[in-house]
Design brief:
This protein is an all-alpha fold. The protein has a domain at 2-105. The protein has helices spanning 2-50, 58-84, 93-103, 111-130, 155-165, 169-184, 187-203, 209-215, 222-251, 278-281, 293-298, 303-316, 324-329, 365-383, 397-411, 414-419, 429-443, 446-461, 470-482, 501-505, 510-529, 545-555, 563-571, 579-599, 611-614, and strands at residues 136-137, 142-143, 261-262, 345-348, 355-358, 484-485. Strands 1-2 form a two-stranded antiparallel sheet. It has a two-stranded parallel sheet with strand order 3-6. The protein has a two-stranded antiparallel ribbon with strand order 4-5. A hairpin with a 6-residue loop joins strand 4 and strand 5. Helix 1 (2-50) packs antiparallel against helix 2 (58-84). The longest helix has 49 residues, at 2-50. It starts with a helix and ends in a 14-residue tail after the last helix. The mean pLDDT is 95. The structure holds L-captopril and zinc ion. Zinc ion (ZN) binds at residues 373, 377, 401.
Length: 628
């Protein structure tokens, strides 16, 4: 009798275990089946707006589609919570992780509020992409508003181009300021967006939107980790900065005196990538250029050819090639008859087939690198397309940003550019330093700017900055971390952070800071797999199936494991490590240090860092005048 009872108890337990399991399987199968269609429909609606900002009927459709997907996600999250509770009874780690992700809604708003939030974002996008300014006249050296409106300058490409290529201090200041006058139009929308987004994050169980965004990294110490990485790379940034400041003082004599650099003369609207002032700052100006723009134009490169060039590189590693849908549906050229969102992006429509890039491609080297960046996203999408829906993400958002850039580190080597006929020059010490310098203008210059954008936004979301301190807070950080100052006094109602696309589009940014360090780790690991033994910065893994295999094994994981395990898979390390970046730039850092010492320049821009940071920085320090 006793034995009988035991057996039947065991049978009941077994039966409930099996039923819990089949419940989980059924639930996940349903989630994946329905989700593909739900996400696809929403992507189609968002894409339609992004490629046509002039059709007034589209925003409403897109906002409703957003509300629809939000409602569906919330429903599935609620069902998962009701059926499986705290997940303690689920032993399978993969299924448990999927359910955990399904339960995390992030921004949880009702339908009407979701529509409000989406509409605010679309309104900001319209302001960003549609406003024009009077062109600058080289003759009168002033804005000329008498030309027809269709000849006025758009943000992309005209304003961004002028900031990159004009060397007229006053024209630069005009365009820089005019663009920020437009950005200020978004301040009120942004303030409402912050409130609505925070409301959703709180309803979703987070402290605020910044808290939710950080959770995507699954690292409790993300803030500290990022701060520590910034401190590590600061000496390298300062070395580059000190050199560049000297060159700028020579280029624009008497135009600025402070130890910090005016933000508008660094060749980029946001002073985040300085490669467009590489011409007059190059270490060895008489050595052949490492910029291939001219060659691309001479050889008749088109946007399509740029995409094909990138695709060929991915294929040479044995990676997945871009599919027919990609070539058919992507937007590679800016339409001339309507406004679009020009900021480059890569889209996963989540049906396993439809992947697209949207980019207003111009034929130049910078854009060739961006094409690789975007294709890296598509490659990741395709590699993890067989994963369940909730794992179709990067190991963390920073991984996603790093893939195309890792490939591009190989593509830009003079060795590779020579191989594909875009550069004809032999390697020399001078050329190597010029090359590394140009790379530093892209990668090292970016670091503080990549770090501070979300420092600012985290402080906006947690209430440290409010709408009356948005701008002063922004400039405090820009000066503290980047060493730049605005070219003129900023109006009280200015909203200069809104000049950056990611701020007005609600796209988190710390991912790019993470990526700018991680990509050198990935690159080094792939170089090793390709048996490249020369200096790291010379490594080109073109054609290496071993390098491709190593990368794809990591890419296929998607978000199925916490990122340190994905990092382990490709690099053998579990952490973010700036070592590979330092190794890459070592010859340049030595060269810069020597130059800066010879010139007797002071370091920094007058900010006093805590002792622990200061002890790693070079001396002499520039006058300690700034507030701490
Ligand atoms: O936004 C981008 C990509 C799209 S994910 C073009 N990037 C950041 C930026 O432009 O600010 C790439 C580097 C940093
Ligand atoms: Zn990207």
């Amino acid at each position: 009798m006793k034995r009988h009872r035991l057996v039947s108890l065991a049978l009941i337990a077994l039966a409930s275990l099996i039923s819990a399991h089949s419940n989980v399987d059924d639930f996940l199968a349903k989630y994946n089946r329905l989700g593909q269609q739900e996400y696809y429909d929403d992507s189609v609606a968002s894409w339609s707006v992004a490629v046509n900002l002039d059709d007034k009927s589209l925003p409403e459709i897109a906002a409703k589609a957003d509300a629809n997907i939000a409602g569906w996600e919330q429903m599935m999250a609620a069902q998962a919570a009701t059926q499986f509770g705290d997940l303690k009874s689920i032993n399978d780690t993969s299924k448990k992780r999927q359910l955990k992700m399904i339960q995390r809604v992030g921004v949880k708003l009702n339908s009407a509020d979701t529509i409000r939030l989406s509409t605010l974002l679309i309104n900001m996008t319209n302001v960003y992409n549609k406003n024009r300014i009077c062109p600058w006249s080289k003759v009168s050296r002033a804005p000329n508003c008498s030309v027809p409106h269709e000849h006025w300058w758009r943000s992309d490409p005209e304003m961004f181009d002028r900031i990159s290529h004009s060397r007229d201090y006053d024209e630069l200041a005009y365009v820089w300021t005019a663009w920020r006058n437009i950005s200020a139009l978004n301040k009120a929308y942004f303030q409402q967006y912050v409130e609505m987004s925070n409301k959703g994050a709180r309803q979703g169980g987070f402290k605020d939107t910044g808290d939710y965004w950080r959770s995507l990294f699954e690292s409790d110490d993300l803030k500290d980790m990022m701060d520590q990485k910034f401190q590590e790379v600061l000496p390298l940034y300062e070395e580059l900065y000190t050199y560049i400041r000297r060159k700028l003082l020579a280029q624009y004599p008497g135009r600025f005196e402070t130890s910090a650099i005016p933000a508008h003369i660094l060749g980029n609207m946001w002073a985040q990538d300085w490669s467009d002032i590489g011409d007059f700052t190059a270490p060895f100006p008489n050595i052949a250029t490492v910029d291939i723009t001219e060659q691309m134009v001479t050889q008749g490169y088109t946007p399509l050819k740029m995409f094909q060039t990138a695709d060929a590189f991915f294929q040479s590693l044995g990676l997945i090639k871009m599919n027919d849908e990609f070539w058919k549906n992507s937007m590679m050229v800016q339409p001339q008859n309507r406004s679009v969102v020009c900021h480059p992006s890569a889209w996963d429509f989540r049906n396993g087939q439809d992947f697209r890039i949207k980019m207003c491609t111009q034929v130049n080297m910078a854009n060739l690198l961006i094409v690789h960046h975007e294709m890296g996203h598509i490659e990741y999408y395709m590699q993890y397309a067989k994963q369940p829906l909730s794992f179709r993400e990067g190991a963390n958002p920073g991984f996603h940003e790093a893939i195309g850039d890792t490939i591009a580190l190989s593509v830009v080597t003079p060795q590779h550019l020579q191989e594909i006929g875009l550069l004809n020059s032999t390697s020399s010490y001078e050329q190597d330093i010029n090359f590394l310098f140009k790379q530093a203008l892209r990668k090292v210059a970016f670091l503080p700017s990549g770090y501070l954008i979300d420092l600012w936004r985290w402080s906006v979301f947690d209430g440290t900055y409010n709408s009356s301190t948005y701008n002063t807070g922004w400039w405090d950080l820009r000066t503290k971390y980047q060493g730049i100052v605005p070219p003129n006094n900023r109006p009280v109602d200015a909203f200069d952070a809104g000049s950056k696309y990611h701020v007005i589009s609600g796209t988190p940014y710390i991912r790019y800071f993470f990526s700018h360090i991680a990509q050198f780790q990935f690159y080094k690991a792939m170089c090793k797999a390709a048996n490249q033994t020369d200096a790291l910065y010379k490594c080109d893994f073109f054609n290496s199936k071993e390098a491709g295999d190593l990368l794809s094994r990591m890419l296929q994981l998607g978000g199925s494991l916490p990122w340190p395990q994905a990092m382990q898979k490709i690099t053998g390390q579990q952490n973010l490590d700036a070592g590979a970046m330092f190794e890459y730039f070592e010859p340049l850092q030595d060269w810069l240090r020597n130059e800066n010492m010879k010139a007797g320049d002071c370091y920094g821009w007058g900010y006093t860092w805590p002792d622990a940071v200061m002890k790693n920085l070079n001396t002499p320090r520039c006058g300690l005048t700034l507030d701490q």
